[in-house]
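Page 42, continued from yesterday. The earlier attempt failed because a stray header line got pasted into the input along with the sequence. Redoing it now with the clean sequence only.
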Amino acid sequence: MKTYKSSCILCDSNCGLELEVDGREIKKIKPDKSHPASKGYLCQKSGRLNYYQNHNQRLTHPLKRKPDGSFEKIDWDRALGEIAEKLIRIRDTSGGHSFAFYGGGGQGNHLQSINSSALRKMMGSRYIYSSLAQEKTGDFWVAGEMFGRQDCHLTADGLEHADLAIFWGTNPYMAHGFPRARNILNEISKSSTRRMVVIDPKRSKTAEMADLHIAIKPGTDAFLLTAILSLLIQNGGIDSKFIEKWTVSWDKVQEYLDKVNIEAYCQKAEVKLKKTKTLASWIKETEKITFRHDLGLEQSPHSTLNSYLEKLMILVTGSFGKEGCNTFHTSLIPLLTHSEPESDGKYKYETKVTGMFPISGMYPPNILASEIDTEHPERLRALWVDSSNPISSAADTAALIKAFSKLELLVTVDVAMTETARLSHYVLPAASQFEKWEASSFNFSFPENYFYLRKPIFEPLEESLSESEIYERLLLKMGEKPLPVLSQEKFPHLERKVRLALYPLYMLVRRFASANKDVVLAAGHKQGDYETLGDALFVAILEGPTAFSLNKYEDNFSKRWLKHEDGKFHLYNKLMLEELNKLNDELEVNTDKPEMLLMAGERRSYTANVIFRDPNWRRSDLEGSLHIHPEDAVKFGLLDKGKAICSTRAGEIEVFVEFNENCRKGACSLPNGYGAIYPVDGNGEEIQQGPYLNFLTSAKHCDEFSKTPLHKHVPVNLRPI
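This time it went through. Structure tokens are written below.
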């Protein structure tokens, strides 16, 4: 038995782990108390990581799909040779715009896929689809308008010191999402001087700990946000000094908010005015406030407007750039980029069929089927999927299955035989995240920010390769030169495949240190005998978890992040205020028959996106039950622990029913991460465990601007089986 240090790959916290390993099995997982960010914290999900590393659907050889839909094993030389030939033909006959890349590397597989940029360059394509673009691109666009660039990202790391923590559309007790989540929640909950507020239709585990729970009606977040902002103007909760010093055009925004009928907006959200006033008064009287939102806000109607209103609330209350508040954060591996329109308002790389523009360099999965399933002469004809499973994780599974059948080439690079892999022409086996050098770009801490380069614990399984090796071999088949690698003279102890994988990181570290010398030095790094400060930082990263930057709070107001020429936050946004004005029209909307609304993708004790294939990893909620209030269940004739059909305009699935009095009446929920097809035994029999959610969701049910799917507001019908 050997012990290794690594980190978790299940959420963006990437907590430090100690793994006890016997052969190829992870026998025991403990928290790494020396990890500078997680500090010995570990949640219950991490303890099940052996189910990711070892299961019956691990890919071991390149596969090619035969005409009958089955797959044959082929060698790497043949697989990459045939793929290269097809890619070149498609590029040369249909153009680079006929190729798209779908990926992102999940929560911890970000380093190896950097070399995929060389493939996109070779193909002449800028089309990158990502799961991130079905969650947060509206938020990124708002950041670009307010701060000057879409890659200026706010962190909620101030929660550790906040006197008022506001959680909107998130359940961090289950979802985590920031370091030491449960510890911090417990600290706030037990404190007599600190407060916690949760805005969530369901009385979640986090809501149970809160001083104030606001059970908002699903889909009305924009109304409640607007009402709170208007109340803050009325009760003097606006920080006039901050606004005058750091913002532009607040007066134009206030004109809109002054006209709001606060009581009517609260009624629309089905929230008592008294509760809204309580929250507004707490915001007014508290100095250290941190706002933390997630998919409940982003995947609801008016998604982009919600992000705009939340940012307004952070800034005009002065709850920014100081201890206990939201801040910016540094990035070592840039997670985002900036997408800017041309002078005529058009984007250079709009999609050919739907005309969608990029946000932060990404395109939303919601348009992907439309870009493929058409007779348009410039449609997508080839798709490369890297460490993603859009058939399961993107909206409108039925539309995607139909569209993918029309692709001339679909290639999936993954650890497992996913639902997307099953539809692919070629499936290429990637080494697992514990079999190669890897890292996460989710480094959101402030003032000190950390980076952890994970070393491999196991050898790659059979013929699987790291992504960097796959891309280099493919590019060589396409006639390209070998990819650059780290100097053997500088790093003689590293074999070539490691120097290949680490070269992009090395260049990024050098660039970061050159542009941010002050914060790298403040974090304790010195150039010494190294060629550059970046070289010194890179060597420190090779040795273990490293603080790569240490900022001061006043840095939040520097040109490092405030990218407008005047160095201020630009609050006026014509598009968003036009949408804000339209909210009044919705006040009059009244349906004769109340809708049952599904909140799709709830985080629970044993959900982890779709990274786990083996259903045995779960210790509870094996069926992924539909949670529904007993009174609603009776109306539909449903029985507790019974089965039902859940149907929408897009499709229907069978669900297991569980009565739950924490549900808001009129709203039910289903968890994320279920529906995987998994073999029961070696005889070919397979099961699908739990709800395959995206058979219920429609790509057309989305935010008009960012195309973010409205998963937290899906009208459904229920009938017993």
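Notes: Residues 2-53 form a domain with the Phosphorylase Kinase; domain 1 fold (CATH 3.30.200.210).
Reminder to self: strip header lines before submitting.
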